[in-house]
Design a protein that fits this description.
alpha/beta, TIM Barrel, 9-stranded parallel beta sheet, two-stranded antiparallel ribbon, 38% helix
């Protein structure tokens, strides 16, 4: 059994994978529409992909959106993510500004989890981790490979690296070039679940070929799966209602 993390009323690392719906809107009006649409879908937490949002580096724009999300989502955990261009996201941002925005979000008290990209460096993760923990927020260490699937040993190495850096949940998304690549990702996930239980783990093999990895987390040990209620944030995401049906019958 992996170490669990409780955020509000959701426990990550036990039971079936939790469904996370990403919000990828560019402005406040779009965000409101997406939230209304999302309310009829099954989900356990929400990821605000703030890198899609116009003028996200402006504190007032961020605060207005985060306040709205907190009011609308009640006790559902909110994951704040800026996926940078280095890891397949929409925003080019300096490391200094990246730290500033993420620490500000953590200290706001309006979000529960902060995504921190491993590619930004160990020191960056440490600074954001400490600021988040001081405010009662948790961090999700993340890494994304949009071109390939590393070896099992490399996947495990990077997930363990994020654990050692103090991430509360660790995540690695890869891109398969073959069916065997999907097996490599699942094998690495199971190894983490069996041998490195310090934190809950999130993995996925992106694209259509890897879609099976999004529904079998309860078998191999991935604790979150991302589903859509409208727009997707990554290749291969399934509609949340369909995803819920799959994972509840695994």
């Amino acid at each position: 059994m992996s170490e669990t993390v409780k955020i509000r009323n959701v426990v990550f690392g036990e039971g079936i994978p939790k469904i996370c719906i990403p919000l990828t809107d560019t402005n406040f009006e779009e965000l409101k529409e997406s939230v209304e649409k999302m309310k009829s879908a099954p989900f356990d937490l929400v990821e605000w992909r703030a890198d899609f949002y116009k003028d996200i580096e402006d504190y007032e724009f961020r605060f207005k959106a985060m306040t709205y999300l907190r009011e609308q989502l009640g006790d559902a955990p909110i994951l704040f993510t800026i996926r940078t261009s280095v890891e397949g996201g929409k925003l080019e941002i300096s490391t200094e500004d990246y730290i500033s925005v993420l620490t500000s979000a953590g200290r706001s008290g309006l979000v529960d989890l902060i995504d921190v990209e491993l590619s930004r460096g160990d020191d960056t993760m440490a600074v954001i981790r400490d600021a988040a923990h001081e405010s009662g927020a948790k961090i999700v260490g993340s890494l994304h490979d949009f071109s390939s699937t590393p070896s099992k040993d490399r996947i495990v190495h990077h997930l363990c690296q994020m654990q050692q850096l103090g991430a509360d949940i660790v995540k690695f998304a890869v891109t398969p070039q073959s069916a065997r690549d999907v097996l490599t990702l699942l094998d690495a996930t199971l190894t983490m679940h069996e041998e490195h239980k310090e934190t809950p783990v999130v993995t996925m093999s992106m694209g259509g070929q890897g879609a099976v990895s999004r529904v079998c987390g309860s078998v191999f040990g991935s604790c979150i799966t991302f589903g859509t209620a409208g727009k997707s944030s990554a290749p291969g995401q399934l509609p949340a209602d369909l995803l819920s049906t799959f994972i509840r019958h695994m």
